[in-house]
Design brief:
By secondary structure, the chain is an alpha/beta fold. It contains 13 helices and 13 strands. The longest helix is centred in the middle third of the chain and has 22 residues. It is globular. Bound molecules: flavin mononucleotide. The site of flavin mononucleotide has 28 residues, from strand 4, strand 6, strand 11 and helix 12.
Length: 371
């Protein structure tokens, strides 16, 4: 199927503007998500073999999830499991609805297997996302695999009010996801990455955990896992501060990494033009940088903080590299654009083989083996 995608479907899809192609794909999956028959048909083609793992007390059918940004409004929540992913992270959702940056704002560098985007958290806002999530639940279409929500800061909210903005979205959506990711690393919202500084982050994490605890008590449930998503450029001193704060506020993990603002060398003129666009770069050129960051976090935290590794995962080898560097779970975005819907199945089948070849009993035994 992935050969069919690469040779027939992808060339047709790539004739279209990148964001238009993305929106078409999401609305197709959104329509399919409302039909049990379509979900089971997709499952027949694309479901992954079982490769279960347990991280922050949640059971995952396999360790590969769909990364934030793909399903910003939670329109296709059931579809990600149907096409073989072991979990999804919807969003970035902001407290206030926002249009994002002017178009065009998403670009393909095909020969580099990369994307550049400056979307700027375009989304329908936490309240409307909540309605969509409730609708899937009410119709009995909610997936069995975990669903996370990526929380961004609204553009209209000044940086000093960021804690209230994140905590406001968390409170609204709390009962409708299995885990939450505080995104302080998108390069496309002015000043957002400054929130990685400990003086800002301390206030955000403190208020979000307070809100988390309040919601848990109110509904008589356990607190939800809270994670922080970081940039690949993060300096060591900042990373150490973040790890310290994660431990101080008893957060559950780190997502590493978001897109990079750096650009690699390229001889390809088309790619050069794309790399000149402002925004975050994802895909193959990000792969090693994100793996290095995973290895660093694993080392500094002595393997005690679960890491979701993301950045340039296209194959089972890429996935194995990130798990053995220290990632407990993985995600991808750009890989799906270039490889098509067979990618999760192909990666999970390959990982299962690697686990067997290494003589391990489960994928979790591979975490950090090559850290
Ligand atoms: C078009 C686009 C939009 C994205 N939007 C978000 C977002 O809203 N929140 C976030 O944390 N990451 C966002 N990301 C980053 C991805 O979640 C991921 O961290 C990054 O793309 C690296 O993974 P990849 O190389 O597999 O694409 C976005 C990425 C792309 C390409």
């Amino acid at each position: 199927m992935s050969f069919f995608y690469r040779t027939i479907l992808r060339p047709a899809v790539f004739l279209q503007d990148s964001e238009k192609a993305h929106n078409r794909m999401i609305s197709t999956l959104s329509r399919a998500s409302r039909s049990r028959l379509m979900m089971s048909l997709l499952g027949n083609f694309y479901s992954s073999p079982e490769l279960p793992t347990k991280v922050f007390d949640l059971e995952f059918p396999n360790p590969l999830g769909i990364a934030a940004g793909m399903d910003k409004n939670g329109q296709a929540v059931p579809a990600w499991q149907a096409i073989g992913f072991g979990f999804s992270e919807i969003g970035g959702v902001t407290l206030h609805e926002q249009e994002g940056n002017p178009k065009p704002r998403m670009f393909r560098a095909t020969s580099e297997r990369a994307l550049v985007n400056r979307m700027g958290f375009n989304n329908i806002g936490a309240n409307s996302v909540l309605d969509k999530l409730k609708d899937f639940k009410n119709r009995g279409l909610w997936p069995e695999s975990p669903v996370g929500i990526n929380l961004g800061k609204s553009k209209i909210t000044p940086l000093k009010k960021a804690p209230e903005d994140y905590a406001g979205s968390l409170e609204l959506l709390w009962n409708h996801a299995d885990f939450f990711v505080i995104n302080i690393s998108s390069p496309n919202t002015l000043g957002l990455r400054d929130l990685q500084e400990s003086k800002h982050l301390e206030l955000i994490l403190s208020l979000c955990q307070e809100t988390n605890s309040k919601c848990a008590i109110k509904l008589g449930k356990n607190m939800k896992p809270l994670l922080v998503k970081i940039a690949p450029e993060l300096k060591d001193s900042y990373l150490k501060d973040i790890i310290r704060l994660i431990q101080k506020f008893d957060l559950n993990g780190i997502v590493a990494t978001n897109t990079t603002i750096q650009r690699p060398e390229t001889k390809n003129n088309k790619s050069k033009k794309i790399f000149d666009e402002q925004g975050g770069l994802s895909g193959l050129p990000l792969k090693d940088r994100s793996t290095d960051m995973i290895r660093k976090i694993y080392k500094i935290s002595k393997g005690k903080i679960p890491i979701i590794g993301v950045g340039g995962v296209f194959t089972a080898d890429d996935a194995w590299e990130k798990i053995t560097a220290g990632a407990s779970l993985l995600q991808l975005y750009t890989g799906l654009v270039f490889e098509g819907p067979g990618i999760a199945r192909s990666i999970i089948s390959g990982l299962k083989k690697r686990v067997k070849e290494a003589g391990l009993n489960s994928i979790s035994e591979a975490i950090g083996l090559n850290s």
